[in-house]
Design goal:
The chain has helices at about 10-20, 25-35, 35-50, 65-80; strands at about 25, 55, 60-65. It is α+β, with helices and mostly antiparallel strands. It has a three-stranded antiparallel beta sheet. The mean pLDDT is about 90.
Length: about 80
Amino acid sequence: MQSCYRNRIDIITSILNTANGNAVKQLDILIKSKITHGLFREYLLLILQFGLIKDIRPQGTYKTTEKGIHFIDICDKMKDLIQ
C-alpha cells in the first residue's frame, strides 16, 4: 500500500520534472505537480537558491537547469535502489 504523503524530495523532483525540457509557466507546474501556490513559492526559493531551476524573464516561465536534471537522475537512482 502506497501512501499519498510526499516528502520534500518528491515535491522538488516533481517541480523539476515538470519544468524539464521546455520553459513552463507557474500554473502548469502547480497543476502537474499537484501543489498549492504557497508550497510552490516556498520550494521555488529553495531550488532557485541551489541553482536547480531558472526563472526565465520576461516570459515568466521556469526551466530546469543541468544541475537540476542531474539532481533528478540521482533521486531516481536512489528510489530504484530502495524499491
